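Recap slide: DNA primase, sequence and predicted structure.
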Amino acid sequence: MSDTPPANATSSPSPMSPEKDESRGTKRRVDEVVAGEASQVNVAPTELSDEFPELLRFYYSRLFPFAPFFEWLSYGDVSGTSVAAATGLGAAGVGEAAAGGRGDGMGLQGSYVSRREFSFTLEDDVYIRYQSFASAAELEAEIRKKRPFKIDIGAVYNAPPKDHKTIPAGAFKPLEKELVFDIDMTDYDEVRTCCSGADICTKCWPFMTIAIRVLDTALREDFGFEHLLWVYSGRRGIHCWVCDPRARALSQNGRSAVAEYLNLIRGSEDSGRKVFVTTPMHPSVERAAAVVEEYFEELVLEEQGMFGCAERWDKILPLISDESARAGIRNALIQQDGDNALGVWEGIKDMYAQNSYRSADLTEIMLQFCYPRLDIHVSKGLNHLLKSPFCVHPKTGRVCVPLDPARVADFSPFDVPTVSQLAAELTEAAKAPAPSADEPSPMDVASQSGRAYSLTSLKPYFGYFENVFLKSLLASIREIKQEAAIREGVIDF
């Protein structure tokens, strides 16, 4: 289940102004929170804290990484077409738009970044779509003013989305957007026994670890993408933003092709067999199966206890294609009474090795339980919005932090800081004195550089985004621009 808003949602009227909101006197001032009360604030997993709006004001004013965030979405070009369009990599119609038209009499209007759509979800579920901003300062001012509970990011259009009502019907069109993937733990409810719905724990989180490992490798090795931004959703899932020019320029058909290629889990919840493996096995499936096999025994058999009772066996036994093998396995499960799951699994593997049963059965079982469960509709739509990195989830208070895929095995969603925790950490950091009378304090240095996050638990997450992901992305963009300039003979040596 995706937590993104529907692509066809309409704008809602704005709530009361921030000035009127602050005059109610029902919310604590952020300076009171930062001054010491924050350490006592506990944002419950399923209930919105009364302090949350004030904590958001603190977060947006002190910690949200506006400069690198805007730099990411600008892709090194705030004055014209994107690298994707400028290099002819655009989706159907992007090349026309870059040349000054789309065949509908309308060329590009405004800078690249000003044509990016944002949506805000405000307090009381007020949803405002078709927001757009011409500069980082404008974006920052509006976010600080409205203090959205959630920010979603959409496509880059051929005109600023805020002007969409002034554009002739049919002329306002999306041109490009990151290729995105949404994996939600609720889609694993049929294969996990420890939790259900929005709940997660250390026993089921490895499903997300597998998803990142499998998809990150496939997107890089099978499609050649390099700039993948993985983000924890703040509650029960993960998102991936593929930011290469080729990915951003994909048409809807192209996005669908990539999503379908990666989607192995097919059929409804009531379907028995959801994975069908060919012989010989496709290299990408074989590679994914090797990752899944590393986790299957501990995750599915031990932590989820899939051999623990008949109700759970019945999710595995229908995947055994040979009737006699199925009967033998059922008898073995009855006899072990859930006490020797690993021994039974070893016996099943030995049975298959010694007989002429369909060899793909065991691979299909492991993949059906552990392979990433994609919401492919999120990936296919060019005008679908997805929750922005760096938001604060209102139900948990946790920040939607970027993840380093190379260290995903070390990531725990329970280590991600809450906004109340961050307020307390920044309060403590403010107590650190300056090294000398002639030098600024650590807080002054961090604040002046726009990196107050470096004094909090956000440092490894935001630092990875800025110093690894964004640095690599911008270096690649500069290289593309230089190559294009050389081809056109406009380099000034």
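Confidence is low (pLDDT under 50) at residues 4-47, 90-105.
The CA atoms of residues 466 and 478 lie 16 Å apart.
(End of recap.)
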